[in-house]
Each structure stands twice: as structure tokens, then as C-alpha cells.
Amino acid sequence: MRRRNPHRRPGRAHPAARGADRPADRPADRPVDRPDRSDRRPAAEAPPAAGPAARPGAASQAPGGATWLYGLHAVRAALANPARRAHRLLLTQEAARGWGPRAGGPAPEPRAGGPAPEPRAGGPAPEIVDRAALDRVLPPGAVHQGAAAQVGPLPEPALEDCLAAAGPRALFVVLDQVTDPHNVGAILRSAAAFGADAVVVPDRNTPPVSAALAKAASGALELVPLVRVVNLARALGQLQRADVWCVGLDGGAATALEPALRPGRLALVLGSEGDGLRRLTQETCDTLARLPTVGPLTSLNVSNAAAVALAIARRVSPPA
Q1: Has residue 201 been placed in a domain?
Q2: Is residue 185 helix, strand or coil?
Q3: Which of 74, 126, 211, 284 is the most exposed place for a label (fewest CB within 10 A)?
Q4: Is the same domain home to 303 and 287?
Q5: What is the number of helices (H) and of strands (E) in the chain?
Q6: Residue 194 is part of a domain; what is its CATH number?
Q7: What are the C-alpha distances in Å from 71 to residues 90, 121, 159, 212?
Q8: Alpha-carbon distance 116 to 233, whole Å?
């Protein structure tokens, strides 16, 4: 039976457990008791040393819903994902030289931030272009590492499907209006690294899936479902009915995170930087907790707070 934490007190969330609207300031942490919820391209074994310098301007006429992703990890992961449909692959000469299958055995297991997965056979042949051509297709300042792919959207996962597939030690990350795409991408990367089952976000005040988000996720966008929900409080209730213990991070919470957790299904709930968790989100969580910071600087960026919280959660409730 869930019970309200008598020690919870209203107020601003601690930066190290609140979320982050900007990529490098503070997040926030704090807990309370809640009342009641690639298509992989054949990676051209040896991409043609030269090729028609693709006219990226034309490439921006994307087929329905298609978008450009960039960066070696993001592009390789998207092309390796059977749920993705890829339309074009642009590589510079330098990137093309290392694009083919790696020597020395089978492709490594997909892992965020690890070796980029091998593109699947049957994808678009690489088009060899110069950096200026890539720059014309991509947003200004994009760090593309010589690779860009035009891909279709991923299917939108439903929370009930994620819960149905989750095991007894499932781990979810719930973001309450974290608006910076770099933070959402970095949180996806940490979620993949610690074996989280999904990242849940509200439809409103959450950035759309974009090339910048995918680049920050370093391939994790293809590995961890990003679930959008209309009502976050209702989604928390849905998690709770599936026996998921929901812990909100708030820097003003009386309890540290580790003792607030328990073995079993868990959800870590983080709010936006500056505002932290909204009142209804706090009240819906089973409990609130703070990160165990000890130095004079107690605020963390939301993506850093998420990584620390995920590590603690996996120590308390390792994968089954």
C-alpha cells in the first residue's frame, strides 16, 4: 500500500534532481510518498572513392516524415535499426574509408556510446560528398563527423506495450517538461547504458525528435523507446498500477535516493531545470528523494542527475 511521505515539504526542487532546460546548469533531486499512477545500409564495403557529389539541397525534399540525422554513432545506429527506413546516406571521403564492416568477427552488441553498430545490408548506397555539401543539408554548426542519413520516423511506442515487455526489475525514466534536446538525448544515452526500459515524456513542453537530440543520444534513440504521453500524472498512475515504484528527484527532499528505492520495478522522475517537478507530479510520485551530493556545489545538470540516479537505481535493483 502506498503512503504519503510525512517529511515531504513543498518548495523548489534541488537543482541536482530537477531537470534541465539548458544543457549545463542545474537539475534537481528530491522524494515524497505519493497518494495514488536502419535500416542499415550495406555499409559499402568500399564506398566508391568518388561519387556524384550529391546535391544535398535536393535532399531536403524529404519523403513523408523523413529527416536528416548526423554523426557517426547516430547514423550507424539508425541504419542498423530494422524499424527505420533509410532514404539516403551521405559520407565524406574520410568517413567512407572507415565505413565498411569491421574486421575481426561479428558486429558488437549495440550499446550507447560504444562501438557504432554495423549498418544492415540492403540500405542506400553511400553518396560521397564534400563537407560543404553536408553543411548545406544540415543545420548550421552541426558536428556531423562526415556522415548524414535521411531516414523515416521511428514508430511511436505506447507505454502499455513497454510495460507488457518489462521484466520484474524494469527501470523507467520519466521527464517532467525537460525542454532541451541535448539533455533529452544525453538522458536517453544514460538510460541505454543502464538498461532502462523506456524514457517517458509529456507531449507538451518536450522537444521533438530531431537530429540534435539523436546526436546527443549517440545511438540510444534507436535502443530505448521514447514514449510520449498526453498526461504525465496519468502515466505515472499507469506505471504504479503495473507495480512500478515511482521516485521523484527533488533537492529539497528529506530522504536520499538510495534508501528511497527498493528492489523491483522502478521509475525515476526528473523535472525541468529551474522549476523542478510540478506540484501534481510530486504528489503523484510514491516518494521524493534527493541525490546524495556533499560538496559546496550541489546542483547538477538534469542529464548528469539522471545518470547518477540510474547508477544508484541499478545498484539497488540490478537487472534480473
Answers
A1: yes
A2: helix
A3: 211
A4: yes
A5: 11, 10
A6: 3.40.1280.10
A7: 11, 20, 29, 10
A8: 36
Asked if residue 68 is part of any domain, the answer here is: yes
Does the pLDDT value for residue 199 go beyond 60? yes
What interhelical angle do 302-316 and 181-193 show, nearest 10? 20
Element (H, E) at 260: helix 257-260
Q: What is the mean pLDDT of residues 300-306?
A: 94
Please tell me the total number of residues recorded for the chain in this structure: 320
Domain count, the chain: 2
126 neighbors 96 (Cβ within 8 angstroms): yes
Whole-angstrom Cα distance, residue 119 to residue 99? 9
Number of CB atoms found within 10 A of residue 109's CB: 8
Name residue, grid cell 568518388. Answer: 50
For residues 171 and 130, the model is more confident at 171
Residues of the domain holding 66: 56-151
138 within a domain of the structure (yes/no): yes
Are the C-beta atoms of 248 and 30 separated by less than 8 Å?
yes
Can you tell me the distance from the alpha carbon of 152 to that of 139, in angstroms, rounded to the nearest whole number? 18
135/199 same-domain check: no
Kindly state the greatest CA–CA separation across the chain. Answer: 69
Q: What is the 3-state secondary structure (H, E, C) of 15-75?
A: CCCCCCCCCCCCCCCECCCCCCCCCCCCCCCCCCCCCCCCCHHHHCCCCCCCEEEECHHHH
Q: For position 174, what pLDDT does the model report?
A: 98
CB neighbours of 158 closer than 8 A, spacing ≥ 6? 227
72 lies in some domain: yes
Question: Over 70: is that where the pLDDT of 210 sits?
Answer: yes
Confidence (pLDDT) at 101: 54
What pTM was estimated for this model as a whole?
0.74
Which of these three, 124, 151, 178, is where a domain ends? 151
